[in-house]
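Dear support,

We are seeing what looks like truncated structure output for some complexes. This example has two components. We would appreciate it if you could run it in full and send us the complete C-alpha cell output so we can diff it against ours.
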Amino acid sequence: MNSEEIRIGVYICHCGGNISDKVDVEKVAEDAGKLPDVKVSQTYAFMCADPGQELIAEDIEKHGLNRIVVASCSPSLHETTFRSAVVRGGLNPFLYEHVNIREQVSWVHVSTGEATGKATTLVQAAIGRVRHHEPLSLIKVGATSRALVVGGGVAGLRAALDFANYGLPVTIIEKSLRLGGQVADLDTVFPTGESGADLVRTLVEEVSAAEGITVLTDTRVAGATGYVGNFNVVVEQKSSNGSTEELKIKAGAVIVATGSRPYEPVKGEFGFERFPEVVTLPDFLQILKKAPDGDELIVNGKTIRRAAFIHCVGSRQIEGIHEPKPGRPLNENCSRVCCTATLKAESDLIEKFPGVFVYDFYRDIRTYGRGHEEIYERASSDGVVFLRYEPATPPMVTEALSNGAGSMLVTVKDSLTAGMEIEVAVDLVVLAVGMEPADVGALAESLKLPAGADGFLQEVHPKLRPVEMAVAGVVLAGTCQSPRDIEESCASASAAAVKVAGLLTRGYVELEPYVARVNADRCEGTGICLSQCEYDGALEIVETEVDGKVIRKAVVNEALCTGCGACVAVCPTRAIDINGWTLDQFEAMVDVMCADPMEVAGG
Amino acid sequence: MNAAASTEAVDTLVIGGGIAGLQTALDLADLGLQVTIVEKDASIGGKMIGLSKVFPTLDCASCITTPKMAAAAHHENIRILTLAEVESVMRQDEDFSVRITLQPRYVDEDLCIGCRLCEYACDADVADEFEGGLSAHRAIYIPFTNAIPQLAVLDPMECNLCGQCAVACPTDAVVFDQKPREIEITARSVVVATGFETTPMGAKEEYRGNEIANVISPLTMERLLAPHGPYGRVLRPADGKVPDSVAFVQCAGSRDKSLGVPYCSRVCCMYAIKQAMLLSGALPFADITIYYMDIRAFGKGYETFFQNASAMGIEFVKGKVARIDEAEDRNVEVRFEHIDELGQVEERTHDLVVLSLGMLPAADLRDRMPIGVSSDGFVTVPKPTIEPCRTNEPGIFVAGTAAGPKDIVDTIAEAGAAAMAVSGYLKSMETAGCAVCAVSAGTETR
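Here is the complete output from our reference environment:
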C-alpha cells in the first residue's frame, strides 16, 4: 500500500439531465464531499465533454489529487475517456474509478429519493474502493502484423486488399473453390448495372497484383486459440486428391467476412416446393441470366406470361404471425437489399421479355440508397403492378383450377385497393428471400464470438465501435454482421481493415492490466486455482528448488489471463488477487455500503 | 489547437468536423498520420451534437459525440481549425494546395479561457439557432455547453458595441477589429466530409412550414426532446401548450420531384419513429401519428424498433399528406389520403406537426476543387460498389452524407473506409512516387 496521503476528487455528471432529472446530484456531491480525504466534490453538466475532462485534469494539479472518482454513465462508454483525462492531469490512469449512476440508477428508478440514495451509496462505495487503487500499466505484448481474413467474398477481398495496400501481410481463406462469394453469380448489380463477375474479377486481379496477400481456397477454420496480437488459427485445406491438409496461421487479428446466405423457404411457404414454378430470387436471377434471348421466357418447358414477385419472404418476421424455422430465431430484420434487387429483377425480366406481365406484392418498398429510387421508378414505368399486403394477411399461392391464364393463383387483400381481395393468375412466383447469416462454424466456437438474437455476429456498439467485436482483435466485415448491399459491405470491410491496421502497425498490442497476480509469500502451490482456470496457459504451477526443497508456486501468464477471478475465489490462502479488483477493494466497498451513513461521514 | 501558420504540410486535410470528419480524422491519426480538420462553424460536432437520442439504441447523442470530439481535440496528430472555410483545393504536383479563410471570432483564441464572463456581461439577446431558435444566447457566447473549442465567439451583426464584454474579460481576449485571415495549407490528401443540411421548411408550399408556428422541423423536435434543450420539456412553440396530439409528416422533403429531391433521405423514417417513441415517454397521454408512404426501417435492429413503436400505440397511417393548414387555437390541420380506409381524403387536427425533412448536400464544392458532383447535388463516386469513398480525383476522398444521405451508423462505417482509402493512397504515393501526378499533370496545376 502506498504511504502517500490519499487525496480524492469526486465528480458527479448531470448527463445534461439524463442523470440530474432523477438524481439530486448536488446532494450526492455534497455528501461525498464530507467523507475523509475527499478534497474536491462537485457536479458538471457533461463530464465527458471537454470542459468536464479539463476540470479533472486541472484539479489534479491544483489540489494535488491522487485518486479520481467520476459518477456518470456506463463505464463501457466513458471509462477510457476519463482515464485519458486523468493522464492529462499527470496521474496513472488506473488511479481512477468509474461509477455508473445512469444505466444503473437514473434510467431505472422512478423515485428521486431512491435514486439519490442509491447513487450516494454507489459513489461512497467507489470512494472506499479507490483508496486501494494502485498505479497499473497496460500489458505490452508483441504482435504478429499479419491479419487473417475469413471469407473471400467482396467484403473479405476488399478488407484484404486494403490491409495489403497499407503494407501489412494478410491471408484470405475461402471455404469454396472460388473467390467472390454471392456477387460472382450476379449478372448485373444495382445501382451501377456492372456485371457481378466483372466486379469480382477487378477485385481478384488487384488481390493477385498486391504484395503480401496469401489466398487459400477450399479452406476452413478448424479451431483457433490465442488473443489479440497473437492468434493461432488452425485451418484445413482440401487438396485436389480429396485429402485434407492442416495449416497453422499466426495472425495478429482476424477479420470475419463469412457473409450470409439466402433464406431458404420452408416447404409450402408461398407454395415453395409445392409448385415447381415457385422459385427464390437468387434462383430466378440464374434462370434469367441463362435464358437465351428470344420472344419468350421458358421455365420448366412452360412459357411465362405473368409473374408474381413476393417481398419480405424470411424477412421482417413478426412474433405471433410468423413461425421460426426449427432451431432458428425469427428473421425480424429487414434484409435491406431485396426490395431494390427485386425491382431490378422485374425490370430486367420485362426488358428482356417485353411480353411478360409482372405483379409485385410488397409491404413497404425500401429503395433507400443512392440510385435505388430510380430502380423503383423504372419498374413502375415498365408496367409492374404493385399490390400491398399486411403481415397478418400475406398473399396465398394456390393451384389455378380453371384453364385460365396461369398455373397458379396468388390471392391477396390489397390495401392499395381499399383492402379488396384480389386474385391474379400467374405462371411463375418469385420469392424475394431475405438474408441469413452464414455458418461461422469453428471460428465462432473457439474464439467465443458473440452473435445477436438475430444470429448475425454482434459488434460492440453500432456507433462507438461499429466493426469491432467484444473479443479484442476480431473485427467484422460485410453481411456476417447484418444484411447490407455491396457498397455497404465494402465500406464496412474497409472500416474493419483500418481498425486492424491501427492495431497491428506498431508491432505490439496493449492489454488491460486487470489480470491475476500471485502473492508468492502466501502461495502454497496447491494448484486449486489451476483446476478452476478456464483459459489454457493462463496459470501454471512452477516448481523451483530452494535450499534443496521443491517449492510449488502459481505463475500467471498475463497475456492469456482474462481476469475472470475464478482462481481468486478458490485459493485457500488468499494468495491470488486480480489487479484493480482486489479482495481488499471489494471489502472496502461492502464496508461502506453496510456502514451507518453517519459513521461513513464521520470517518 | 486553433493556431495557424501561413503555410504547412499535412498528410490529410479533412473538410468538416461533424461525425464523419471526426471519425475519419481519428482513424487516420491512429495510424500516425497528421490530420487537419477544417470546420466552418465555431465548434466541431456537426449535426449529431444537436440531436437528443439516436436510433436504434436510444443512446444520448451527446454521450456518443462528445468523447469523439474530445478525442480529436486532444489527439497529438490532429489539428482543428474552426470558423474556417475552404476556398480552393488545387493539385500541386503530388500534393494539394488548399486556401482557407479563417473568419474572425472577435476573440483571441490564445487568450480566451472560456470563463463566460463576457457572455454574462453582454446585454444583446440573439435567437439561438442551435436550439432551433426557441431560446436565446448573447451576442458574445460559447456556442453550446459541450462545444469544442470552449471559446467565446462574437456575432458582429447583433453586437451593440457597448464594450461590456471587453471590460468583463479577465484576459483581454475580446478583439473587436479582428479581420478574416487567409492561410494556405499543403495537404497530401483531402477528405470531403461536408455533411448535409435539411431540406428547407418552406420548400413544399402546401405544408406551410415557415408560416404555421406549430409546424416544426425535426431538428427543432430533437432540441425539444433533449434533456438539456430550450424548455427542458416538450412544449409547442406557438403558445407553450403541452401538446396532446403530435403528427409526423414523412417524405416532407424527399421522394418528391416537385422539390427537386427525388431520392429517399434514408434517415427520416427512423428519426420520426425515434422521436415518436421519445415523445410517448415524455408525454404518456399524447396521441402520436406518423403519416408515411413506405416505412424504411432497413438497418440492423431498425425493423424491431419500428415494430416496438407500433406495439407502443404509435399510429402509422399510410397516406401522403397533401396539405397542412392552421386550425383553431393555433392547432394544425393535416389533409391526407387514408389508403387503409378506402383511400378517402380525410382531415385531422393535431396540436403540433413535425415535417420529416430530407437531406440536401451542405456544400457545393465543384468550383473549389477538382471533384465531380452528380445531378442529385452529392459528390460523385465513380465506383460506388467497391470503392465507396473515392471521388474522380485521385487523392480526394469523401465520407458521410457529402456522398448521399445516410444515417450515423453507416456514416461512421464509411468514415473508417475513407480513412483506409486515404492511408492506402498515401502508401502508394510513397512507393510509386509520382504515379498520380502523371495522371493529372497539366489539368490542375498552377
